[in-house]
Amino acid sequence: MLLLIPAYNEEKRIAPVLRDYAEFFRRNYSGKFQLVVVLNGCVDDTLGVVERVAVDFPEVSAINFPGRIGKGGALIEGLRLAPKGDLVGYVDADGATAPRAFLDLVRKCADADCVIGSRWLPDSVLPQSQPGMRRFASRVFHTIVQTLFWMNIQDTQCAAKVIRREAAEKIHPTLRLTDMAFDINLLYSLKRAGYRILETPTEWTDKTGSTVRIFRSSLSMFLSVVRLRLVYSPFYKMMQPLRPLETWLYQRLGAPPPRSAVRVPSTQPNSLNPPEPKPSDP
Ligand SMILES: Nc1nc2c(ncn2[C@@H]2O[C@H](COP(=O)(O)OP(=O)(O)O)[C@@H](O)[C@H]2O)c(=O)[nH]1
Ligand SMILES: [Mg+2]
Fold this sequence. Notes:
Elements: E1 2-7, H1 14-28, E2 34-40, H2 46-56, E3 60-65, H3 70-79, E4 87-91, H4 99-108, E5 114-118, E6 125-128, H5 132-149, E7 160-164, H6 165-171, H7 182-192, E8 197-201, E9 203-205, H8 214-231, H9 243-252, E10 270-272
Parallel strand pairs: 1-2, 1-4, 2-3, 5-8, 6-9
Antiparallel strand pairs: 3-10, 4-7, 5-7
Bound molecules: guanosine-5'-diphosphate (GDP) and magnesium ion (MG).
Residues 92, 94, 96, 207, 210 line the site of magnesium ion (MG).
């Protein structure tokens, strides 16, 4: 089991989460467990914090990208390490998904190629739900995504997902979206490739200190899902002249732009306790 945690300026929130996960999986999971934090562009001491936890827990490591590759970009890079585990998953750095809730998804992966936690099913448990404005934006986004992709998934954005290694490897080359709309790219690619996605109720405790700026994030996510829809339409080639406008829009929104078909990592990672296979050091 390989667990990825994308992290951006998380020095205040991440340490107890890493310790809890490492301890819990030691006690409750018989398979191999590795936790890789994928950082990028942090201007605080997240890396130092992870390094100190890694002294006590060798199963914890980090890869660090100096450039701004976004949460989705960090997950795309992290998923390159999928061959390390039979399953690869991810959760947020703030502990919104407790280790027990994540292990529940892992167990359910016996019945599917990908299991995703959902906050919008009748049995979902939300001791602390997101603020009203976020929930509203989330439902508007859900309606747009359903209209564009017909995936019938209630909660595409819950950051608790587990994928079988073969499925992750197969669809990896089709991952382009690097902002918070990354999950749609992942799920749609899995569906298109014929993999079975199981959406299951999860427990989610919303945490303060969100890195999301709702207005900008919503706009960039909207742009991203429309783009993703166009990639799979006959119109995509005709849209080429709009490329500079698109680049400008992402820049204005302060969002990482999508990657083009031939992907070259925007920056070389430097790594701490790098997992096998080693990402190349600068
Ligand atoms: N690597 C990386 N992680 C990010 C970036 N932006 C957000 N994250 C991580 O994505 C996760 C979700 O962020 P959070 O602020 O908790 O979002 P919210 O819970 O949806 O409001 C956290 O683990 C963040 O550290 C980014 O640009 N790069
Ligand atoms: Mg959060």
